[in-house]
Design a protein that fits this description.
With 300 residues, the chain is of the alpha+beta class. 48% of the residues lie in helices and 21% in strands. It contains 13 helices and 13 strands. The strands form four sheets. Strands 4-5-7-6 form a four-stranded mixed beta sheet. Strands 10-11-12-13 form a four-stranded mixed beta sheet, with helices on both faces. Strands 1-3-2 form a three-stranded antiparallel beta sheet, sandwiched between helices. The longest helix has 18 residues.
């Protein structure tokens, strides 16, 4: 390939990378494409690359959309992901118009670096990381926890927005809090959950314990708890009656994936000859007589 052909190939590669990254690239990425540091400096001088952050450039023009500015911020700090208010805005949980906020693993707390805010976290699990529209960011549960640690209100609104966008998954939120038990935002999120959905403060084991106490109080034949049936773990099994009962907490079954998973399991159990009864938190807590009546009828 001629020198001119090689240069044209590099230009095409840069253009493709810019299209994939909202119009921004880093110097390290350009060097990896075969453009030396001197070549990058020359492109900056000619105006083909416009500096956004140290060693991060917009390709061709400096009129950047919000997502381009967020990605440029991430590219400017090695190992960083978008976090706090910026990540919450990216997920649609909370409006944010401040300077980009990033999270990196390490000690040192929060610091301002020019037109960026960098938060340091002692740990950021793989499950607390995500990529949204090509932008490395904290997961939505971690973004929610981080925001709750630095703002005074609005936690309930974040939860509501997550529900409205079908993003909310209680399992994921609880898991994020368990990975960071000392996180300052966890207590605030728990309080908001308790106010919005009292049932969500019940764990799955709480519901199972309440169901088991109900069965014992009403002298119903004791079920086997957490049994494996047809490859699925079920809450309660009366094997001789081929009856399965599930105690469902609202928060753990609200997402589309949970909805689909429950129906797939119920269908498999029913095809194998089992009857499946599902009881909600409100049934177990406030209408135990109806739960008892249904169970007695099924166990006859």
């Amino acid at each position: 390939m001629t020198e001119k052909g090689a240069a044209e190939a590099r230009d095409r590669a840069v253009a493709q990378l810019a299209r994939e990254q909202h119009g921004v690239v880093s110097r390290d990425q350009l060097v990896a494409l075969g453009i030396g540091k001197d070549g990058v400096a020359a492109a900056v001088q000619r105006g083909r690359l416009i500096r956004v952050h140290p060693h991060v450039y917009a390709v061709g023009h400096a009129s950047l959309q919000p997502r381009a500015r967020r990605l440029a911020a991430v590219l400017s700090v090695p190992g960083a992901v978008l976090g706090y208010g910026s990540a919450a805005a990216l997920w649609g949980l909370r409006p944010y118009s401040g300077v980009p906020e990033l999270v990196v693993v390490g000690d040192g707390g929060r610091r301002r670096r020019g037109d960026l805010i960098v938060h340091r976290a002692r740990r950021l699990d793989v499950a607390d990381r995500a990529v949204v529209d090509g932008i490395p960011a904290t997961s939505w549960p971690r973004a929610m926890l981080d925001c709750a640690s630095v703002v005074r209100d609005g936690y309930g609104k974040m939860i509501t927005r997550a529900e409205q966008s079908d993003l909310f998954d209680m399992n994921a939120l609880v898991a994020a809090m368990e990975r960071a038990p000392r996180h300052r935002g966890a207590a605030r999120i728990r309080r908001a959950l308790a106010e919005l959905h009292p049932a969500s403060s019940w764990s799955k084991s709480d519901l199972e314990d309440a169901m088991l106490r109900l069965c014992q109080r009403l002298d119903l034949a004791g079920p086997v708890c957490n049994a494996m049936v047809e490859g699925f773990e079920v809450d309660f099994l009366w094997l001789e009656h081929r009856l399965v009962a599930e105690a469902d907490g609202w928060g753990f079954h609200k997402t589309r994936s949970a909805f689909q998973r429950d129906r797939t399991r119920d269908r498999a159990l029913q095809l194998a000859g089992y009857r499946v009864l599902r009881f909600a938190y409100a049934d177990v807590e406030y209408r135990p007589e109806l739960v008892a009546a249904d169970l007695r009828r099924a166990l006859r």
